[in-house]
Fold these 2 entries.
Entry 1:
Amino acid sequence: MENKILAYVDGRLKESERLEMEKHVAACGACQLRVNEFRAVASLLDEVPQIEPSAAFDVRVRARVAAEPVKQGWWAWFTPSPRVAFAASLLLLATVWIGSRPTDRTLTAADEAQINQDLPVLENFDVLSDFGALTDLPQPVQPDDTGDSNPDQNQNQQKNDSPNQTM
Amino acid sequence: MARSDVQLMLDVKAGDEQSFELLLQRYRTPLVNFLYRMVRAREEAEDLAQEVFLRVYRARKDYVPSAKFTTWLFRIATNLALNSVRDNRHQRMEVSLDAPVIIDAEDGDEKPLDIAEKHPNIEQYMIEEARKKMIRHAIDKLPEKQRAAVLLHKYQELDYGDIAKILECSESALKSLLFRAYETLRVELAPLVARHGK
């Protein structure tokens, strides 16, 4: 009977059960007291006020829903994203451009003659670039701005500056 | 004519985001209130309610209307709330013993001066507040499963069968659970119950 008291108080019993319960409650003081007390409890629970969700609540829900990744089917694996497609296009263009550039130039006879002429120098480039004696050479003489200097004097001066000069 | 919850959910499944918005508006207040009464912290209740809506949205593609939408919704909410209550039980006990009494939004969120200004009959106001606090305290003291049963039964007005599905128990077990909960409330609220009967 106790399991039916609450349903009776709520008015959730079937009609036949309700009539049966009413008869019982009328005859049973303990159950009548319990029914009254449960009604009082239910009434007291109604006094608890409701709260309103904060203004930010809806905004947060919408933001979280918007941040959800879009579910895609298995075929989505074969569909490149715009970024990947763009990067692949750039790579393809770069490959085509590099491939289209001339890889070898044909040399003319004059080019070959020039290379043959420069070849000994190039072969000894390391030696020449580090050749100490070259640093000992006299500094070139600056031409006189006045223009009235005697060329012979310059020549003599050069001889005097020469490291091979014998005094 | 308003679309049913199931129809709205099926529309969400078909890609109609506006239907989800309608479900949000329809259930935001009952859900936040249920969770608030379960976890007793407004911010946490809103976080959990957000999580419930998010889970509903995530499950839209697999949604099959095999049960009532509210049963499904409150089953998610109840599981989240029960987990949260169990996780925070020790922390909550420490807080309730050590923390000063804070008047929250439901209590009015008013300073004493505001109360005096807004409520000329301050004595009557204080009596009413004490009464509400006593009722809330009695609900809080219920074991979490009984509390969930009472809240779903009293405030969501769900059928016994739906509540039993939400709490994953038989209907007769639910009726026993509710009876025990009301017995506890009857004892806890005895002074108010006695006055109510007069």
Entry 2:
Amino acid sequence: MKKLNLVLATLAAALGVASAASAQKAEVIHWWTSGGESAAVKQLADAYNKAGGQWVDNAIAGGDNARAAALNRIAGGNPPVASQFNTSKQYHELIDADLLSSVDDVAAKEGWDQWMPKPIKDVIKIKGHYFAVPVNIHSGAWFWYSKAVLAKAGVAEPKTEAEFWNALDKIKASGQIGFAQSGTLTYERATFTAVLLHMGGRDLYNKFYGDKDINATKSPAFRTVLEKFKRLRNYTDPGVPGRTWNDTTALLVTDKAGFQTVGDWAKGEFLAAGKTAGKEFGCFAGWGPAAPYMISGDVFVLPKTSNKESIAAQQLMARVITSPATQVAFNMKKGSIPIRPDVDASGMDICAQAGVIALKDPARQTPDPSMLMAPDVYGKVADVITKFWNTDMKAEEAQNQLVAVLSAK
Amino acid sequence: MKKPRKGPATAWAAHWALLPMGATVLIAYIASILWTVRISLSNSKMLPRSDWAGLTQYINLFTTDRWSTALINIGLFGLFFIAGALALGFLLAVFIDQKVRLEGIFRTIYLYSFAMSFVACGVVWQWMFNPALGIQRSLRNWGWDSARFDWIASQDMAIYCVVICVLWHSSGLVMAILLAGLRGVDDEQWKAARIEGIPRWRYYLNIVLPQLGPSFGTATVLLAVSVVKLYDAVVAMTNGGPGDATDVPTKFIMDNLFERQNIGLASAASATMLVTVVIIVAPLLYARSRASR
């Protein structure tokens, strides 16, 4: 009898140890697969593992693919513990269908109501409850440039739009690529958005993306924006079609091209290649101290589950992601800005510090288009823009097609 | 002679054996098709909704510029791909039929491309067509400085790059089918033709080709299936670009089903494709059933 008790006790202890060791296992779907991004997500994984969890990485290349996989898993009843989305409307239908857990307790503890920027709060706080954990603040409409290319062409950092066009002309005349463009749907639309924001102005941007104003889309000012967007094509190289965003940033890293408009996630690529902001590459988010600052970012959503182990893992995930140490470690590698205002910004490079200053001014905070438009309308805008960029479509025709997209049900 | 009567036990067993297949057809195929048509009549976005939207999704579909382009692209692709594959497959089969030495090795080489995945084919051919990496660069390196082969970056020619890639992939299959057909052609006819003084190529064109009707029919059906489901090759090669020059209906459907979160529109597009295929196939099936009577 004693021997049996001993065996049973050992078995129970072993099972207990085993279950404790496998506690807080978190399968995380994300799309951070480029060099800089992988280094950044490793910071999150390390912090989570150190806090007692077990990060099971499920990286899927391509934001669209990763989101599609996550949506299917969630809708199909086999959700991951956490899933990456952009700070946008991409997951709102999941909230409406009651498929996501709320993170109100973490939000209350960290005081999100007090300091979270309004554009972000608008898309993560729905009907009074928080449904997503923001992990960073990105800004989509930055200009990046290679100092070597500009120096060879004899131009300085452009402080106005006129200087920008002048710089492009000079770089082209010096035999280098003036404007590096990624020939993918997302980034053709992103360049158009940057031109609309910085050359068309914040009002026109908000009218188009926010209000879906038909009259603003038909206006001559909008046509000018489209023509300026098409004009950038004169400064690109033949390798544009199909080139990914990070291969395009590589052109700047290797001093082959002058400018690129892409978000501050490109900084991760520069950092991974050992370049320093202000030395080999420069950055500016528009012209002038009142330039609109487009905010976007990434969040993790926590799909509703009845599995106790997964719920514990989700609570730990939310705590770890928003902790100050993890925020600093992750964002330094990623090129983005921490969501918390109470972290030490002195270790950040000049681009991130400029971003922090811009972020502090509520008048400059502008939502990213995916925060304002539903995914299918945003996708249809991309279809029109890519056709406009790649064919000899006239600006008026593009205006008409965009009006049709905005007015469709 | 009286037909032997099948006992009741045999009939019962046969019906039971067909039950799994019958269930699969009913549930997986027919029910899915009905569900898709139902969703295409609703306002479903990311998740299915049970409201009624009438023909809104179909109207949206046919006023979408991208869908019209996709249909034109698949039409062009289908035409050139099927014609090209049949011609190329026939030539390869005739070549092998010449009783060459190492026939087995040649046959394997030509058929090997069919074993590759479309994604692998698409990626490799993308590199071949890339002006900075592939054929254009090689030609320039070999001395022909003004060589241009940037079809893949051109709005009009990009779809033909996809045709070439899938042609390379599937010609081997056509060759195998036609070779089997050729082997069924009586060799005595060649002797008769030689006596008449008919040249070899004439013999193949006028005498052998008409006899390969059923083989060509089989090959065409298989190729047509490849045309309708063309997706992975396009995504791997050009991702629909530049612009929407290589967009195809399946890519339109997949984009709307997942990334664009608009399953209503995707279902309408799927239903449209189904109707198109049925319209093309139904007369053929009817003709076949008439012929077999």
